[in-house]
Amino acid sequence: xxxxxxxxxxxxxxxxxxxxxxxxxxxxxxxxxxxxxxxxxxxxxxxxxxxxxxxxxxxxxxxxxxxxxxxxxxxxxxxxxxxxxxxxxxxxxxxxxxxxxxxxxxxxxxxxxxxxxxxxxxxxxxxxxxxxxxxxxxxxxxxxxxxxxxxxxxxxxxxxxxxxxxxxxxxxxxxxxxxxxxxxxxxxxxxxxxxxxxxxxxxxxxxxxxxxxxxxxxxxxxxxxxxxxxxxxxxxxxxxxxxxxxxxxxxxxxxxxxxxxxxxxxxxxxxxxxxxxxxxxxxxxxxxxxxxxxxxxxxxxxxxxxxxxxxxxxxxxxxxxxxxxxxxxxxxxxxxxxxxxxxxxxxxxxxxx
Length: 353
Fold this sequence. Notes:
The relative contact order is 0.12. This protein has ten helices and nine strands. The protein starts with 11 loop residues before the first helix and ends with a helix. It folds into two domains: 12-109, Phosphorylase Kinase, domain 1 (2-Layer Sandwich); 119-352, Aminoglycoside 3'-phosphotransferase, Chain: A, domain 2 (Alpha-Beta Complex). Strands 1-2-3-5-4 form a five-stranded antiparallel beta sheet, with helices on both faces. A two-stranded antiparallel ribbon has the order 6-9. Strands 7-8 form a two-stranded antiparallel ribbon. Helix 7 packs across helix 9 and helix 9 packs antiparallel against helix 10. The model has no long low-confidence stretch (mean pLDDT 93). The protein has helices at 12-22, 71-81, 119-125, 131-146, 164-183, 188-199, 241-249, 275-286, 293-316, 327-352; strands at residues 31-34, 42-47, 53-58, 91-95, 105-109, 208-210, 219-221, 227-230, 237-239. Helix content is 42%, strand content 11%. By secondary structure, the chain is α+β, with helices and mostly antiparallel strands.
């Protein structure tokens, strides 16, 4: 796609002029290529006249929720994490003048890597004999992030430092309650589990940077089958690192789960170690006590149920087109998430009995 084409969300002439003035090492004109993923943010690969590459990113067009698609947050994270062992793209330039192209945008270094969305991606980019290596790198990057002091990095005001899980339990329970009527669907497990998690809320400990959506889809695997960069930091905040860990572990199917929530999961193919292996490696690298890890596993499963319940409600209410959408599958995902949340609680209770 050339610079003369219509690039949605970007005034290419103005943006290229801004980059020429503010980013060292890139010379317009650029070839623009849309990159998939990254939620609905408008993300493009830029290649300049000398073949050098970078990535540009801005929010989607239209009215946004106040804290959605926060480019300034992403920029702050990759800028602060650049000098640390956590692999992130290089921070090249941030434009906070919306008159340039209608929104904030930033330019970051291009990384030779690929996200893993499904089993086909894994088969293409991570051979079976390299999957333990990838898993080790995946956990080590997260453990490294959780070992950093946000205050020392200038990120101490990234979010509230107290009761990360407690606040989410209240937020997503409100979402569940608000979605019952439009979804025409309720489940008593959603209520009893929320009460259990509130009653048994662990002490958080020192707040750490949590990615919020750490998974194979947001980790670019490089040619050596290790994580070359962690991307999509827009919902990152300060909170409980064990909640972040459990969220990541839930991407890995495990024999102890009675249901499989995604048949073609990127990590569902042979060669990957299980969640117990990953948890042990994380504990060794951080020194954290994981005896109550199933609390966080269950909490994340419950939260997933609440999120999908809200999506299902919007479809049922007619706020989103149902063309091509399998509503029964969405409802099944809610049920499966609640099943897995309850199983995690049962494991936790058995160990504490």
